[in-house]
Fold these 3 entries.
Entry 1:
Amino acid sequence: MKEIIKEVISNKRYIFITYILFALAASIQSIATGPKTFGDDTIEYSRYNNYLIFKNSFHHLKNNQDLYIAYPNEQWDLYKYTPTFSVFFGLFAVTPDWIGLNLWNLTNALVLLFAIYYLPRLDDFKKGAILILVLVELMTSMQNAQSNGLIAGLLVLSFGLLEKEKYLYATLCIVFSFYIKLFGIVGLALLLFYPNKWKLALYTLLWTIALAIIPFLFIDIDQYSSLLQSYMSML
């Protein structure tokens, strides 16, 4: 029995299929379950409210609306991410909810899965065991359409890339993580433990600038400045 369990955990295909099934199950549950209320609010909102917050931010950005104020007729709670993430989420927002939500949860699950399998100096059994251990927490995150799996995956992947001296892509993962949620900036601490710090600093600066200007695809400098002021005020 012990050998069978080890063989299953060591099998990448089994783990991959498990992660896909859990991501799809989380999405189906959210779509199939009826609306609910949050806190003391009497208004009923969708079970995948977080997804709608992300989705609506893309449309608000395109329409030159303030991303960081309440829209109680559309969603519960505020959008607390960057304008850059709003643009990124347009990849999901342009699809029907039942497609976009599945794609979003699959992105969270598979980025984390790939990141764990990319770790150096661990065999497939240890990597599989890690993925099984975090699956319950990941499932909770996906049931709420959160971004935790994606951020965790990006930070773990950045470590794997740094270990393999792929600094350009490692710094992209770190910078993108804090353009999703600001606490991703802690990933910069990893850079202190690797050589070529000037190169790492330059790559980080370049990615920071590149991701910062992406919203200009939809808005002008005045709207961008207004959004940043509103963001700081909301935080």
Note: The mean pLDDT is 94.
Entry 2:
Amino acid sequence: MIFRGLPPPHKPNLIYVARLDDNKNLLHILRNYDEIKDLIGQFTIVGDGDLRDVVREYTKQYSNSVMSGVLNNHTTQLLMAAHDYLVLPSKYDGWGAVVNEALSVGTRVLCSVNCGAAILLDGVERGEAFKLDSVKECLGKWLNKDPLSSSERAKIKNWANSHISGEVAAEYFVSCFSNERLTAPWLR
């Protein structure tokens, strides 16, 4: 089951898409869920891993949380687009590609400063990066806002398309190699 009925329209929906392991730090949010649960329409957890059973027990306690397991990429993207915020509270993440994926469908992101992709967040429109000891405060701040409007979603999608799409990244990568001042270290 992916959605448990329709969440109240005045509360934003939160989604987590990642492995269910200690490094991704989802349990930090779930252990403190009582403090934020009333701010959330629905909290959807997509993924699988070592902490599957522990996460399942938490989601059973709350009527506005659901664990879907692993989904195909198309379904995950549709689900991300139906949520207002993606949360990624990782203790460490080299990049966190799911941040790019969420922004590309117009979903705001709240991720730890330990994710390389935190650099994509502006603290205003696209979301915010938080220190691990302030995740509850960050979630509270953003979840107290109204759900994303269609114009806010479009603005995020447009930014992602013009700044982090595959085409833009490829052009940047090629330009790095076409610059005459750059010499590959193996050619020096």
Note: Helices lie at 26-31, 52-61, 73-81, 97-104, 135-143, 150-163, 166-178.
Entry 3:
Amino acid sequence: AAFDDIDTAARAAAGRDDQAGSPPVRSAVDVQAVIENAARSFAGEEGEARLRIAASAHLPFAHVEPVQCERMIQHLVRTLMPLTQGQEMVQGALWFQPDGAGGRLILGLDRPARLKGLDEHELLDPGYGADGDWPDAPLLGLGFSMRLVRSLALAQDCALRIENERILLELPVAHGVALADGETA
């Protein structure tokens, strides 16, 4: 799957469409459900949650290609989880950010303690390893994995931003999709 994602990211960076020559089909994706699936995938040995995301009520769906959305979120979580120490959890929030273009869904993940104080350049450097190589580091390395998530995000009209205390994944909102309480996005 990682190699498929690298290929997808490379094609997006080159401005090419998918292998069939047509653009990926974007649709309304329930990002909260994707995050819940990721949380189940990374539960501890006894089923305890190691990923905790607080979500705002009545969130609209994202307008992205469903498989790529799942890959972005899975890679981001898979990159951060091995960097937690002891009982540390990956925590964050999911919220709607209105803007002039209809708004964005924002997934904000707090940086694990090991990543606090590192600047964006260090986090995205494919050769960087704080204190050398971590035995439990992400499979492809921290910098490479973060660049992969950023490339997948750009291919979906999303963005990956790195702040001092957290990492933000921004996704475009699907318009006209019914919400849980009957409103529309």
Note: The helical segments are 2-13, 31-41, 66-80, 120-124, 142-155.
